[in-house]
User: Fold these one by one.
Assistant:
Number 1:
Amino acid sequence: MKPTASKMVAVAAVMALGAMFMSSVSSEAAEKQGVVKSAFGKTTDGAAVDLYTLTNKSGIVAKITSYGAILTEVHTPDRTGKKGNIVFGFDNIEGYLKGHPYFGATVGRVANRIAKGKFTLEGKEYSLAVNNGPNSLHGGIKGFDKAVWKASVVKSGDGPSVKFTHHSPDGDEGYPGAVDVTVVYTLTNKNSVRIEYTATSTKATPINLTNHTYFNLRGEGDVLGYEMLINADNYTPVDDTLIPTGSISAVKGTPLDFTYPHAIGEHIKELPGDPNGYDHNYVINGGGKGLTLTARCYDPQSGRVVEMQTTEPGVQFYTGNFLDGTLTGVGGFNYQIHDAFCLEAQHYPDSINHPNFPSCVLRPGQKYHQVTEYTFSTK
Ligand code: BGC
């Protein structure tokens, strides 16, 4: 039997409706789980920058931009299930271009300080830009945090994942060797942001990559009441420009002891010579050999917990001591002193000038590899 014209129109209409339904279902599914890429603006050189929004099975959201491979937002539920952003950042490129203290950034080639911006490697002395008092900090004037990275969505059985790559030429910011670096962010279905770094170099060069996320587990106010645990019996004491003296000292009996959980603010005023707050490198117990518990922080008010693990031997615990209310970020949050804490996985500061510290030198033929995970939960 031949279908009549009216029947054919009806079938076509049903098919069209079906297609519309399917596409709305699949775009909803994409928003629910997976990766959505959107434009984030342009740098002052006119380079286009994207934002990748990752959503995992339980609806946790992490956003990363190709500018600086920066983690811009992380939305997790509090103990009542209400979701909110728990990291500092901006929702547009302009915020980052105006200047900021490494919010969420991928920092390199060398995170933290190099004394006087100088080091000698294989008999040659290198001079870097001095951008923090007398020292070089966080990779120099234009570190990896200010590069536009290439990005691609990758398949991972663990959850939505995006890979960022960057080529740093020989002599970049004064460092020897051309370095190719890859950073893979995965928002796992176990509610972790996992950051995996690899790098190779054409010449021996120091390398010390980190992520500089500022956490505020309730989206407002200071972090002094949060309970912090740091899995470290020792730290690296510093001079008054925050360069390690070279010794490794016990935290026991000092305001640096977080081997038992207690409020960040409890002993903050007792810190010798640094009334501003914590800005110290801790030597992780058993660290540097594999993924090791580094720290755990709990906000009694929101119930949120973040637990950190890393393969690095050290972690910089920093309490946003230089935030001064001049920056306002996502959600209109005005960032004041002690409104965040950072846990920066790293080799110890100024390692390149301290032969007794674990080496941060990457040589041709070797592969740098670093994994850090921040896992979110509530209690
Ligand atoms: C440093 C601080 C610095 C902050 C922002 C931290 O890693 O230890 O001294 O102010 O980064 O640059």
Note: The two ends are 67 Å apart (CA to CA).
Number 2:
Amino acid sequence: MENRVKIAVQKSGRLSKDSLSILKKCGIEFSESSNKLFIKSTNMSIDLLMVRDDDIPKLVSQNIADLGIVGENVVKEKQLSDSSLQLNTLLKLGFSKCRLSFAKPKEMNLVEIQNKKIATSYPAIVKNYLDKKNVTAEIIEIHGSVELTPFVDISDIIVDLVSTGSTLESNNLTELETVMNSQAILIQSKKFPSEKQSLINTIISRVNSVIEAKDSKYIMFNANTENAEELINLLPSAESPTVIPLADKSKVAIHSVCKEDIFWNTIESLKSRGATSVLVLPIEKLSN
Ligand code: ATP
Ligand code: ZN
């Protein structure tokens, strides 16, 4: 029991679904249940701790969880307000992307932030940002309904998380400058029993494979031998491609992993230079 690796995951919210999905893609099997706080994997020595996202950095720092999946925004806020936090940020996971931005009521004529009242759930990040810019302002910490505060005389402006901007829009707010960009990240405790090291490394390496695979594509096409080099140079972030002779001696098949998406214009450029039978496939796992 002691040596089971514990991973802290948000119980319910914007990170939950994708956090569980990435762990499943890593081969960790478990049965989901909306009201469980503790989920035991059925095939690996791993337990999931289902908690509020705000608690994840501390649980990892205190070794109650060995790994955690949480937004960069939450990690930064906790690190700025508690320098004793013991955690390493390992990998950006590519989901729950958002930004922490200033916003003002649409009709407000804002000349400068100096001396304004700013409502936010991220007081440490906002203070750090203002200090760097040498701006003085009053920060009002509030959790929940931050968008409402400029309209009830609690604040002049706000700093809040934005993804599409539709929530700001529906609350009659205009987005101003961005304080930070954020996405879900994998964090690790700095100290853990050495017996756990190997399984923790396996999990980290599998997560890495899953995120690399998500951004990568496998491309195959046929080409005239003399065009092969020119066509290979059109491939985005291609690892040294495989060039295979075909029955027709004047042609080769080219196969390559590309570490980024392949867009239509790349396919069209390949075809306009003689590539045929272009096939682009998603990659499920990529381990280097
Ligand atoms: P909890 O109950 O776990 O404390 P919460 O209400 O603090 O949940 P959520 O709203 O579920 O948190 O957001 C979790 C994380 O999702 C945020 O900290 C942020 O990293 C990310 N996120 C992505 N897009 C948005 C968005 N538009 N608004 C808020 N958070 C977002
Ligand atoms: Zn939270």
Note: The helical segments are 16-25, 56-61, 72-81, 123-132, 166-170, 197-215, 228-232, 264-272.
